Fold each of these.
Amino acid sequence: MIVGIDIGGSTTDAVVLDNGNVHVVTIEANDPIAAAAGALGKLVQTCGLSLSNVSCVAATGAGSRALDETLFGLPVVKVNEFDAIGIGGTSLAGKRRALVVSLGTGTAIVSVNPERIEHVSGTGLGGGTLRGLSRHMLGVSSLGTLEAMAERGDLSRVDLTVRDIAGGPIGDLPPGTTAANFGKITADATVEDKALAIMNLIVEVVSVLSIAAARACGQEDIVMTGKLTRIFRFMQKMKRLNFGYGRFIIPEHADYATAIGAARAAAQQPRI
Ligand SMILES: Nc1ncnc2c1ncn2[C@@H]1O[C@H](COP(=O)(O)OP(=O)(O)OP(=O)(O)O)[C@@H](O)[C@H]1O
Ligand SMILES: [Mg+2]
């Protein structure tokens, strides 16, 4: 069997695919070699695997370039991260073609067609921004705490809308459309309002960018992956996601789709 390891900017995931079942571990470590070794060790221990049953380690993510050709004596196959994102997202969503958005520390956008996987867009707005802004503005480090605060937030004290500046719609823009994120913030805004507005900023910008990329690439399905999908699910629950174009899909196992994609990409390579 093949172990897929994604050494990302925030977390390292190790997965093993076993007859349709997915076993996964996630760790946070700064050193990429320690992260890969630790994730593999934890996966072996928690899943009762034997290293002798592992044929290779498929490594991807920014940290994977630090790895040697072997890890604990196992061959390491390096997989291009955009390929891993594309293969992971489409395989989990059961699609042959789609736009796959990796919502990690940063955001990467990959277009997948049967004949080609292409990195088409991205933004530095992502999970790192969420953590940085919530720490800096609110002194909050945990996503759970941020969500609990955001549940009681009110965007109308923070974000400027089309209604605020025009009194009604502007052309095809409904009055509730955001004209400027944080454009109306005053001293009246509470920490709960700010928590919601930080999340909303990231969800809105990433969604709009994804829709534009999907249009440009002729893709209809937009598959969201990565651990920041958590705030998209949260905003869906809060009924704050309402976009007219594209079909947003958050598949099962979306949090570690890139590690799954690395394992699948390596399995497709003829020499394994
Ligand atoms: N359990 C979690 N642990 C750490 N970050 C989490 C968790 N759940 C959600 N997050 C959010 O998701 C972000 C990390 O997502 P993910 O692990 O998919 O990215 P990554 O692969 O490390 O980064 P990148 O792909 O950009 O290199 C964090 O910045 C944080 O905002
Ligand atoms: Mg990642």
Amino acid sequence: MNHAMEAATVLEVQGVTHYYSSGLVRSRRAVPALNSINLQVYDGETLGLVGESGSGKTTLARILVGLIRPSQGKVLLNGRAILGRTTRREKRLRRRLCQIVFQNPHSSLNPYLSIETSMSEALASAGVPRSQRQAEAVRLLASVGLDKDVMSRRPAAFSGGQKQRIVLARALAVSPRVLILDEPTASLDLSVQAGILNLLLDLRRQYGLTYVVISHDLDVVGYMSDRIGVLRRGRLIECAEAERFLAGPERPYSRELLGL
Ligand SMILES: Nc1ncnc2c1ncn2[C@@H]1O[C@H](COP(=O)(O)OP(=O)(O)O)[C@@H](O)[C@H]1O
Ligand SMILES: [Mg+2]
């Protein structure tokens, strides 16, 4: 399906530029981590963003969920600016619409909390009544392929792939519409990467999610995406329907990435 043609925009990036140094110490030659990014994410699609290390992928991911405020430009979630609004209600609303999953599941989970406690906290933040949290946690864990036995254990008991499943279940606890996946399989053994990618495809279908999948690995992005964008040195140099992109991208750099 061509999502770009028919679906509503859920996430929109308008003229985003980001410098890590503060305005006062920024030198004239300072290179922005992101430079004039314009981007739309359509309801129900998977937008893949590919780029080499240091191209600005994680910076953009963090800006998309409001963890970093860009030096210039703005991000709209469901047509509303997500930055500049700092009330707790706005933050909660944003978290419920858009969740981020990072590369390293080890650092995403609190090592001292049982999986049940982590899940309960997430469900509580989504307003799920206490009496329903346990059953809901079991249901979410089942949807990522984990048995209810995992509830009583702590993160150290699990492999990287299992931890990433737990992180996904927790992200889904708030019933988000959009998941930002920053190198979701990069820290995992090759043998478990495909399992996670296929799980992500299942979850997308099951929950009607919209994804932004970010990776240095064109195979990952090519496998998952309806549209593909290329980041290079902080600029989005190309963004096209996946099929068209994979058949023959416009920019020489993209062709190089594809080995053409
Ligand atoms: N916290 C930070 N402070 C200063 N510079 C940073 C910080 N995080 C990233 N950078 C720089 O910003 C650029 C983009 O980084 P990043 O967004 O992490 O790229 P990617 O995820 O594509 O590897 C790089 O040059 C990186 O060194
Ligand atoms: Mg990164």
